[in-house]
Amino acid sequence: MSKPIVLRLGDVLFAQKVWDQFEEVAEVVTIDETVSREEFFKLLKDPKCKASQAKVITHTVQSLPNVGKWDKEVADHLPDSVIAVCHNGAGYDQIEVEHFNKRHIQVSNTPKLVNHATADTHTFLVLGALRNYSYGYRNFMAGKWPELGEDAGGPFGHDPEGKVVGILGFGNIGHSIAKRLRPHLFSKIIYYNRKRLPAEEEDGCEWVPLDELLATADVISVSLPLNPATRHFVNAETFKKMKDGVVIVNTARGAVIDERALVDALKSGKVRSAGLDVFEYEPQVTKELMEMPQVLGLPHMGTHTIESRQNMEEFVIANARSAAEKGKVLSIVPELKDEDWVKKL
Ligand SMILES: O=CC(=O)O
C-alpha cells in the first residue's frame, strides 16, 4: 500500500528527527516557505507534483509573507485528497477556518504548548511596563546615562503590590499569566471572558463584567485570540472606560487592539505605558508607537524558545500523523469541534 502524502510547507528548525521517523510511514513532500502564492497553487494542481495528492498539509507562519492568508482562494485550490491542515502555532488567525469547514478539511493548532513561554514574556512586559524600564533602557543604550543622570532619565515606575490586574481572555495562556503574576503580590487578579468559568477553573481569579474590569484594572493583560469577533476589541471607546494611567500589555495578537487608538491613548496619558509583543501590522510597527519611550516592545518573541518551538513542531507532526493514519487530527480548532462532519470522524 502506498504511503499517505504529507505536504510540508515551511522549514523544520528543531524536529527533524521526528520528521525522519514520520517518513517511515508517510511520504513527505517539502515545499519551501519562499514559494509564491501562484507557484503554490500551480504545484497543487500539477499531477506530476506529489503535492497534488496530499492528504495532510503542515503549515507555519513563515510562509505567510509569500503564500499569504489561508483564505477561500487557498481552501478552493486544495486538492480533494486533503483532509487536514496542521498549523504550527496556538493562534491561527492566518487561516480563515470557515472556508476549510465548507470543504470538510480539518484545521489543527498547537494549544497549551505555548503557555509557559508566552506567559513568561507577558510577565516580563507587565513588570517592565509598570517600572518604565523602556525609558531607562533606551537612554542607556543610546549612551545618554552620563548626561541624563539618575536612571538615565527614566521616570519613577510603580510596584505591583496593591495593583489590580485585569486579564481579557482567560484561556490557557491567561491562566498561565495569572499563575506567574500572583507571586508579584498584585492585590487582585480579575478576568473577563464572555462566559464565567466554573469556580474550580478560576484559579483564585475573579470574573467581572467587561466594563468593571476596564474601570478598575491598573494593568490590563490582553490574552484574547484574534478572530472577527475580537478584532479591535480594545478600541477608542474601551480606552475611555479605563482608569487614567492604566498599563496595557498584549502578547496575543496586535489587531485585538486598535493600534491607532492605542497611540492616541498613549499620547494623551490615558495609557501610561504599554508592553507589546504583537502589533497590528507586524512586521511593520506604527512609527509613532515605536518611538514612544513609554512602549516596551518586542518583535513577537512570545514563544521564541528552543523548548517551546521544538514541542510545537513535534506536536504538528503528531497532528499530521494522527490525520494520516487515523483520519483525525489531535487538536482540532474550537470552531470546528461541534460540526456534524467532525463528530462523525
Ligand atoms: O504567536 C504564537 C502562536 O500563535 O503560537
From TrEMBL:
GO terms for biological process: glyoxylate catabolic process. Keywords: Oxidoreductase. Residues 16-333 form the D-isomer specific 2-hydroxyacid dehydrogenase catalytic domain. InterPro entries: D-isomer_2-hydroxyacid_DH, D-isomer_2_OHA_DH_cat_dom, D-isomer_DH_CS, D-isomer_DH_CS1, D-isomer_DH_NAD-bd, NAD(P)-bd_dom_sf. GO terms for molecular function: glyoxylate reductase (NADH) activity; glyoxylate reductase (NADPH) activity; hydroxypyruvate reductase [NAD(P)H] activity; NAD binding. GO terms for cellular component: cytosol. SUPFAM superfamilies: Formate/glycerate dehydrogenase catalytic domain-like (SSF52283), NAD(P)-binding Rossmann-fold domains (SSF51735). Residues 125-302 form the D-isomer specific 2-hydroxyacid dehydrogenase NAD-binding domain. Belongs to the D-isomer specific 2-hydroxyacid dehydrogenase family. This is D-isomer specific 2-hydroxyacid dehydrogenase NAD-binding domain-containing protein. The lineage of its organism: Eukaryota, Fungi, Dikarya, Ascomycota, Saccharomycotina. The gene is KNAG0F00440.
